[in-house]
Amino acid sequence: MKKIVFAISGLVIALLTVMSCYPDESLSVAQKDDDVDLNELDQYIEENFTKEYGMAIRYRYVDNYVSPNERVTPPKLDVVKPMLDFISNYWIDPYLKVTEGEEFFREHVPAEIILLGGLIYNENGTVTLGTADAGARITFTNVNAIDPTDTAWRDLQLQTVYHEFAHTVHQRYKLPASFESITPNGFTSAGSWFNLPPEEALQRGFVSPYATSSPNEDFAETVAYYLFDPDFQKKFIEQEKDCSTAACEAASS
Asked: Is Nuclease one of the keywords (predicted)?
C-alpha cells in the first residue's frame, strides 16, 4: 500500500483522544427519510461512476478499508455528493478534455474509490492523507471538511489524488531503471523523511520531503506537483536570476 503521510504533534493526538471521550456525544442513527437519500445517491453513483467508468464508490464505512491500527471517521452523508462533484470537476474532467486523455483515464481508472470523513491517524503519531492499493483503489480522506474554495483543502485533495493516481500507473508499469539513479544519494532512511525540511529536500533534487522516502514516492510526488501546482515551473525548474539561495546553488552545481 502506498501512502502519503504527514507527522502531527502528540498534543493534537491527545486533544483528539479527549474529545472522542465526551459522554454526551452519540452516533446519529439514519432516519427513514435518509433511506430515500441513500437510494438516490446510490443511483447517482451507479449511473455516473460505476456504469460510466467501472468505478465503485465506497462511502459507507467498512473496517477492512483501513488497517487495525488506524483510526478513521466515515463521511457525512450530505458531503458525499459534493465530494463526487469535486472529484469529477478537478480530477476526471481535466483528463477528458485533453487529447487522448479520456482513453488514458479509462484504461487506468481504479476500480474503487473510498471516501473517509477525516484523516487516517496512525499509532506512530503520523497522519495518512490518502492511499492507493495495487492500482485498484484510491482513498480520499478529510471529506467532511470539503470546501473547494479553501485553497489548503483543495490543494491537499488534488495533491493526494494525483499522487495516488500516479501510483496506480507505476504499479502497472515498472519505473525506468535509470529513474532511481537521478538522485541516488538523496533518499532518506526508512521512516525519517518527515524530519527533512522542504528546503533541504529541494537541494537534494526532490519536490518534497516525502519524495525522498523511495523512488516510487519520488515519482508520484513529482507527478502530483507537476499536475496540481500552477507554480511548478517557477518553483522547481526556473533558476533564480542571482542564484543566491542554497537551493539554487545546489541545483546549479
From this structure: no
